[in-house]
Amino acid sequence: MSAQFVIFGLLAVTSVATALAMIFSRNAVHGVLFMVGNFAAVALLYVLLGSPFLAAVQILVYAGAIMVLFLFVVMLMGPEPAPLWEHIPGQRPLALLFGLLLAAGLIAAVNVEELTGVPGIMSQEVLERLGQPTALAQTLFERYLLPFEVTSLLLLIGMIGAVVLAKREKHELQAERAPREGGAE
Amino acid sequence: MIVPVSYYLVLGAILFSIGVTGVLLRRNAIMVFMSIELMLNAVNLSFVAMSRALDSLDGQVFVFFVMTVAAAEVAVGLALIVAIFRSLGSADVDDAHVLKG
Description:
heterodimer, A: mainly alpha, extended, B: about 75% helix
């Protein structure tokens, strides 16, 4: 019974510690690695909450794909100079103050004993009978089919956007190599 | 559920506040971007906890969509950061204060 509490406590401490280490890390590569640790801890919390499918997607998409992309860009840009804040006077204390105020407000708002909301039909017994990924797929492809299709459009737009942004750089590179042809579209 | 849902919501609130603090604190565009990912992740955790507490899978479907949006956002955002870095020579958000390329 209390084993779940212990596991939750360990994962909560890990996720908060890695998140804090991420925002205070001077080296961006260290920040990315702390972020991977944070995503892994949250994925294990998803397992604790009984959704192993989302945990797998979290590891695959976030820790696998997105963070590797971040790492590529960090490597591409090279090491940054050490002090990364204090451009505006008093930015650091003000940011910490506002962050703490927001945390206090959110915790006060969220830490309630009773929950309001309409309970659904997917109780733990139903989920165990169907299997959690099957039930999720049924919800996704029956009730949320149109948003799912719109999502594919969004991914296409993202892909085109990335290609367009990268292509303009190639034009600039060509312009640098051959200055006379630089103005040609 | 043995661990109460409010524990997860408090954890999500703490992670979200850390993300907001990161956005306010850091001036490196990559770190600002990672803090935004941290905020998305905190909200995802709250979604899954509420979904479990209310015996409904709608929250988990939302997490699925949030992950998709995050993936598209990261692809475009990082391409923008690289383009800004190429033209300005820095990834500092304070340096990118004009739209002129």
